[in-house]
Amino acid sequence: MADKKAKKEKDLPREESQPAAPEQGGQQPEETAGSAGTQPDSQILAEKEEQYLRLAAEYDNYRKRTAKEKESVWTQAKAETVAAFLPVYDNLERALKQETCDEAYAKGVEMTMKGLQDVLAKLGVEQIPALGETFDPNCHNAVMHVEDDSVGENTVVEVFQQGFTCGDKVIRFAMVKVAN
Predict the structure, then answer these.
(1) Which of 21, 38, 75, 124 has the most CB within a 10 Å radius?
(2) DSSP of 145-159, one letter per residue?
(3) Rounded CA separation 111/104 (Å)
(4) What is the pLDDT of residue 33?
(5) So what's the pLDDT on residue 168?
(6) Which of 151, 114, 115, 112 is nearest to 131 (CA)?
(7) Cα separation of 155 and 135, whole Å?
(8) Is 44 helix (H, G, I), strand (E, B) or coil?
(9) E strand residue ranges, 77-154
(10) Cα distance between residue 93 and residue 88, in whole Å
């Protein structure tokens, strides 16, 4: 039954889809902005241009956001890798502070430490300045406090563990003793 109804509707002429026949003299009837659902070409063009501009802006934002996310992922991966090597750095630092009578051994430890520092520098990793600096909770971790009138207030007087940054990201806070 639905097939018969669809066939009847198919055979009926459609008034909306047929173009209007030109009137005498070859003139087409003028379309106005108020006529049934039609818009002037300039308004349609303006709407399409606005859609295009919005799409272009959306794509530009997407491109910038993905570039920023890509850089963030790279920095995070680099920071995690460097953090895994920091215990080695700490051990080499402790080894350099120990007295030894074997010059070749001491020279080897110094060279190893220098090599590790060079690799960190190539990766953009920097030490956080701490000794003698004003305490900054954004990059220092105060584990001790001492009263010392010869030093200014909130001054770092001893560094227990060196801190590191990679760009603006703190990889490890410097563990310090603060005076006053």
Answers:
(1) 75
(2) EE--TTS-TTEEEEE
(3) 10
(4) 47
(5) 86
(6) 151
(7) 6
(8) helix
(9) 125-127, 140-146
(10) 9
